[in-house]
Amino acid sequence: MTEEFAPHPAIDLMNQDNVFLALEELGIAHMQHCWILANAPEHEDAAAVAEQASEFLEDLTSLFVGEAGPDRVVPNGWAGLKMGGHLRRTMPTVLAARLPEAFAGQALESVPDAVIIRTALEAYLSSLEKVSTEDAAHAARGAKLPAKDYVDFMVAWSGVFSGKADALKLDPRFAL
Q1: Where are the domains of the chain?
Q2: Is 22 exposed, middle or buried (0-12, 13-18, 19+ CB in 10 A)?
Q3: pLDDT digits (tens, 9 = 90+) for 69-90
């Protein structure tokens, strides 16, 4: 099997670089869907792109929640309970403001880890949309969003998901 089509090695969710890349792949699928929705909703591939973005989110959620086997996630105990607890501590305000209606107003500790993790991933995508908006504003002025802004953004999010950051610290332009 060529390397291009070979399965990815198991992701180590405590390795910030691994999480950075996983979030980046999710972000690419999501932003492609957002672009098509805004610019070409009638495009023949619009439904397939939307489905792919949804599948990426579902797949990454399953990895982070701990529903994948050791062939997909390094079994180091981080997925699920530990990640959920860490996210509750590192971004409580973001989570509380974005919980699904069925959990609104509940203490974060009583919300299942799967819901916490999914809510955090959705918050990441919302924050990424702000990065995209800022990038478009730069482009309209004939400039580019500084690479450091994007890298800092991704380091902040991958840091909380991998357990390497004690708080979600975002540039105010990208904060939720």
Answers
A1: 10-162
A2: buried
A3: 999 999 999 999 999 999 999 9
